[in-house]
């Protein structure tokens, strides 16, 4: 039973201004795994003031000092790696192997990436007699979700620290354990007081207080489009910069000349991983109608080979995050069936023998059209929908017919055609032929999937202001 009742403000573990707690549920057991304090606007205010005070000195640190700091954080992270992976499994149910090999790995991955970028980054550029300077934007507010918890914390905190910003983090209240370990790591690494602050709590209270606080210069939010809109609304009166990373319903175009077995199998795996709880999951598979029967058979086999079970059982999928999420997924599957989709694999209800815990059957729905609810709404569970197309033009049209634009996937053997299709897709990241993760590739959405870009060098820009210093080079006498 974990008890994380203090916040981290101004380099110290402090009690909340008003005591209030929340039980954290382990989704694999439905049992209480721990307790956190739920903060208030007063806690956010204390954190914002600490971050503002620390900005005066931290923003003036040298690149070498920040390189040394990131190196110390990476060293501490490596010491706590197993604790981090265990915390993630406990808070959100990821299989042990996924937590160890991917979830926890992303945390240190973003730290190392930020370190590499920082060593080469140009913070100023002379242009004639003018100097253009990139300066840290100030105090940042970070609001993060539960699905890739430390990934989303690290991809904000690491570049922000690298450029000289100070910050307040509000992690997901449903999965707050990894954020606690993260904070302990930063504390052990000697992050100066006030540079990084942690306040736990819910969105409407702590999230809204961060979004609207006049001392917060920018807010970076990852989560649902609904909450992202609220953040922007609350931020508007203070004219702060708002960075949103929101939902997705990413298309996966399997071109007529693709290696069908490889592409469909990879597509199914891409949806199911992390129990379908990835914002960039390839959830809409677009298949040539002439190849649909064959594709369905491959998808069925791949989904049925996807094992589900307790995080420590060696199964490929754990539970989904919560009872609410489980219910939402079930309602959407039922809605899909009602609107005419065919269940190819999985379907409603819990997998056999897994009555306790929020487990969902790896599900494939075929005969889906892009107009159906399951073709349009983000399900955020292990549910793939398959949609047929007649021509490549039609596939592109269906792919783009969504309010989202986070990711897209294309498979085919004709490289020219694959690239051409990629150029027509309105999405922030297009993955060709199951390319591997690239930590330097910018990550972010078009349309209602958000704005701005995280990861790699592009992330630095989110936390920088641009200053033009005219007359920097004095005119020769
Ligand atoms: N684009 C991306 O990079 C990305 C990554 C992961 C998840 N997501 C999206 O996140 C969603 C799932 O996460 P979730 O259920 O935790 O989302 P959520 O929006 O409910 O919660 C995300 C965070 O926002 C906070 N929040 C909620 N309401 C708020 C408000 N009014 N003001 C300020 N903060 C508020 C929550 O407390 C939490 O910390 C999915 O839609 C998914 O696609 C997007």
TrEMBL record:
It comes from the Bacteria. Residues 13-469 form the Aldehyde dehydrogenase domain. InterPro entries: Ald_DH/histidinol_DH, Ald_DH_C, Ald_DH_N, Aldehyde_DH_dom. Pfam families: Aldedh. Keywords: Oxidoreductase. CDD domains: ALDH_CddD_SSP0762. Belongs to the aldehyde dehydrogenase family. PANTHER family: ALDEHYDE DEHYDROGENASE, ALDEHYDE DEHYDROGENASE-RELATED. This is Aldehyde dehydrogenase family protein. It comes from Piscinibacter gummiphilus.
